[in-house]
Write a structure and sequence with these properties.
Layout: E1 6-10, H1 20-32, E2 40-44, H2 47-56, E3 62-66, H3 85-90, E4 95-98, H4 101-105, H5 110-122, E5 126-131, H6 135-139, H7 143-155, E6 165-169, H8 183-201, E7 207-210, H9 218-221, E8 229-232, H10 239-250
Parallel strand pairs: 1-2, 1-8, 2-3, 3-4, 4-5, 5-6, 6-7, 7-8
Helix pairs in contact: 5-7
Bound molecules: 2-phosphoglycolic acid.
2-phosphoglycolic acid binds near residues 175, 211, 231, 233 and 235.
Length: about 250
């Protein structure tokens, strides 16, 4: 088993300031478990509580990340409602999700995602880049074709930043549905993604899985040898579920 696994939480549009104690509880849990020291745990939370978390929570193990950054080429200026990578850097924020299917659905284009990657990495922010196909493409056996296209378009202008990207394969039909792909399918898919990134971009990529990861299916998912970790939505909202996932993974 690969030792350095990622357990990344995506809180999406959830979380009030009172919920930040969930993260402190997880941090305490990880602090007590020395054998988990090789694990990377990142909580990607809404902007409204990101600053509070980074300034007030004295976290030892858990890192805090954002869920998006502005695609503007400037750090400050006329872009109402946007948050620049520079602003996140000011808070010492070191990670952000980009290209999540829910953001793509709301209008994020490949071009914008590519711009966002550049701005994030320039500001020392590591990117968790989400890719994945919808159910229609999955049924038509076009999953890899779609994912390859997404990777190609978002990476071609970011070749010098590739080491700062964690790739998250998230089949859209699996997000929030409770349905996960078969292990054999995922093993094969991870192999294809890693091979593609190695051949095309000369990198040994870190690739994680996202989509309905829960305490119920982690025993199954942990058998995917090439998977470097998980992006966890719904099950990251309650500390008990998130800790259960980690416990079962390392059991
Ligand atoms: P989910 O979300 O775990 O609730 O399916 C995952 C994600 O969208 O990143």
């Amino acid at each position: 088993m690969h030792s350095k696994k990622y357990f990344i939480a995506n809180w999406k549009m959830n979380g009030l300031k009172g919920d930040l104690n969930q993260i402190s509880i997880i941090d305490n849990f990880l602090k007590k478990k020395n054998k988990l020291s090789a694990l990377n745990c990142i909580f990607c939370i809404p902007y409204t509580i990101l600053g509070l978390a980074l300034i007030n929570l004295k976290l030892k193990k858990v890192k805090i990340g954002a869920q998006d950054v502005s695609n503007e080429a400037f750090d400050f200026g006329p872009s109402t409602g946007q948050i620049s990578s520079k602003m996140l850097k000011d808070l010492n924020c070191k990670f952000t999700i980009l290209g999540h299917s829910e953001k793509r659905f709301n209008g994020d284009t490949e071009h914008q995602i590519s711009q966002k990657i550049g701005m994030a990495v320039k500001n020392n922010i590591k990117v968790i880049l989400c890719v994945g196909e919808n159910l229609k493409d999955y049924k038509k056996k076009k999953s890899f074709y779609k994912v390859k296209k997404q990777l190609q378009l978002s990476l071609k202008k970011n070749k010098k930043y590739l080491k700062n990207i964690i790739f998250a394969y998230e089949p859209i039909w699996s997000i929030g549905t409770g349905i996960i792909p078969e292990n054999s399918y995922l093993n094969n898919f991870f192999l294809k993604i890693k091979k593609y990134l190695k051949n095309e971009f000369k990198i040994k990529a870190t690739v994680i899985y996202g989509g309905s990861v829960s305490p119920k299916n982690i025993n199954e998912l942990k058998n995917i040898d090439l998977c470097d970790g998980f992006l966890i939505g719904g099950a990251s909202l309650k500390h008990k579920n998130f800790i259960d996932i980690i416990k079962k993974y390392y059991n």
